[in-house]
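Entry 12.
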Amino acid sequence: MIRSLFQFIRWFWGLARWGRLLALALILWLWVVLVLVIVIDGYGRVDRAQPADVIIVLGAGLRRDNTPGPALYRRTDQAAKLWREGYAPHLLCTGGRPMNRLRSEADACAELLRAAGVPAEAISLEENSRSTEENAIHSRAILQANGWQTAIIVSDGYHLFRAYRLFRNEGLLVVTSPAVDPPLNIWLPSLSREVLAFHWQLLKEAFNLPVTYVQSL
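Predicted 3D structure (tokens):
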């Protein structure tokens, strides 16, 4: 290992100055990515649920036949569990209609909640959002209209770190509660996507960009 380290150092110093700077920047970026992976994954493994006014279920993709996908099942299961345990009297399903689908993610979420025994009068819908940031923006209006002050955000664990930041950016008092972990073949690419999405979010905040939706983010 020591020999390999010396070989790396010799290679590094053999680069032109711009090459060394580029290599150093790449190494630093990889360290940042590693830290983000640890932070995002670690944050999403802690259930911070506490009594609140409403449980917000973040939307997830639908199947081609317009039925709920696995992520939405996981999220609504957790939300229904929190409701049954008395954490909040209301639930808010979020998510607009995906491209080439005939219903909204929020509508599919509400269907699953009703099937889990949650009464329809306890469920509200937010059907205009296309991204997590828009989930937060539109949810804020609904919370304000109903006089709800506090909320529990329910989503997959890998999604919660960024979601918490976005909802806090809207001035909302929220805590987070993770759904059951998805299979590894789903978790790994989803976590990678979240790291990329968090890069984009930091860029947006740094330059005050107004964009709230980017396909696949």
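Annotation: Strands lie at 54-57, 90-94, 123-126, 150-155, 173-178. Residues 17-43 form the longest helix (27 residues).
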